[in-house]
Predict the structure.
Amino acid sequence: MRTTEVEKSKAHIMIEIIEYVPNSVVTRTIIRKTTGNVSVVAIDTGENLAEKISPFDTFVQIIDGDAEIVIDGKPHMLKTGEAIIIPAHTSHSVKANERFKMVSTVIKSGYEENII
């Protein structure tokens, strides 16, 4: 059985783990657990991730190019090396005004204490 996760106990160059595909959004899972997941995403110029609301915090770090991350209607322009945390239960979208790559980390634990 082939896994989508990358090999463990081995160094990886994140920017090389995924390639751009014209007119596409490409995602590669780094690690997936019940408590969260880490993915690398390559988004070609003009492509977008549709607006959505996640029940979990999402940490996004740009590893190549520039990205526009819109949180609650407010655009945030991020460059290579910059990161942002998208708060849980917040409307957000991702726009590729030029192609870029990002690491997306979703944290699913830590919300248990909010349950009444």
Q: What stands out?
A: The chain has one domain: 18-105. The longest strand covers residues 25-33. The chain is about 0% helix and 50% strand.
